# Entry
Amino acid sequence: MFRFRQFWISSMKRILDGSKMILDVGCGQASPLRFVEDSYKVGLDHFRPYILKSKSAAIHNAYVLADASHLPFRSKSFDCAVAIEVIEHLGKQDGLRMIKQMEDVTQRKILLTTPNGFFNALAGPDALNPEEKHISGWFVSEFRKLGFKVYGLNGFKLLYKAAPGKVVLKFRPQALFAFLASISCLFVYFFPSLAFQLFCIKICSAKRETQSYMA
# Structure
């Protein structure tokens, strides 16, 4: 799935192109925003060790220690906001609150990714953050009702299952089903209800109200 991962990264970079300021909600320790250049990137996470690891890798220009569902920023202070594999770690009400606050602080685009539905993924034994587990599941219809365009990622959902600390292919031989997942990527991109992951984009239209992003 390496080629499709490259496709997803290229799509993300295209969507964020021209953004002067990007907010990375729940940035974690190795955000894909490391592939995005020529933007001022603010990483936000509630888990300090993730902030420190990300800072040591110089992925973002600035960092904020805060909760994803309580964003401490001024209205319309970012061009774009992303939350990559974050919303499934929140309860439904907190997830909806996160989206609403991302809309409030963003003036151009919001980008989210999450598994399609609920995967009972728990933190693995070597996880840096022992509380990193999935709490909620989200579906195509929910995001569309919220005004998102939704695409599918990483092949058919039925090929995967949850394992401690990760999601893995369900069937053997692994090489065969990895190939099936790979060749199904293009299909599920246009039929996201069948996909393992969802790639959600919302276009916002508002002018920046302030030059300072902190509330």
Observations:
- The chain has a mean pLDDT of 90.
- The chain has six helices and nine strands.
- The two ends are 41 Å apart (CA to CA).
